[in-house]
Structure formats: C-alpha cells, structure tokens
Design a protein that fits this description.
0% of the residues lie in helices and 38% in strands. It is mainly β. It has a domain of 52 residues. Strands 1-2-5 form a three-stranded antiparallel β-sheet, with no helix packed on it. A two-stranded antiparallel ribbon has the order 3-4. 0% of the residues are buried.
Amino acid sequence: MKFGSAQLIVNPVVYPAYTLLNASLFFQHGPYEIDLNIDNLTDAVYFTPNTDPTYVNVAAIPGVGREWRVTVKRRF
C-alpha cells in the first residue's frame, strides 16, 4: 500500500478505453412523430466502476449491450 497518495489498494481495477456509438432517427408527419433510438450501436463490450464508493477501485460492472427504443407520438 502506498501511503501519502490517493491509491487505497494495491493493483486497483484498470478500465480500458472504449467508444460508444449512439444513433437517433426522427420522423414527423402532421400530428404524428416516430422516434428511433439505438444505444451502443456497435454492441461494444465495456466495463464501468461499481457505483458503491466502497468498491469503486475493486469491482467493475459490465456495460449495457445494444438497446433500441421506438416511440410513436400523436399530438392533439
């Protein structure tokens, strides 16, 4: 353990770099609108720190894979 530095544990988790690609498509005609959203379009594998501050240096959570949503709206 290093004293006098911000490191709390020996050999903490190291997160590799990654890039996420998100896409959105919108179509509107009259009172109707259709929205298509795709998160993590390339289905990249990535890891994020655990949200619990106690385990942030020792635990990693896998990121969410590809997700998509379609929303249909009509204005009145």
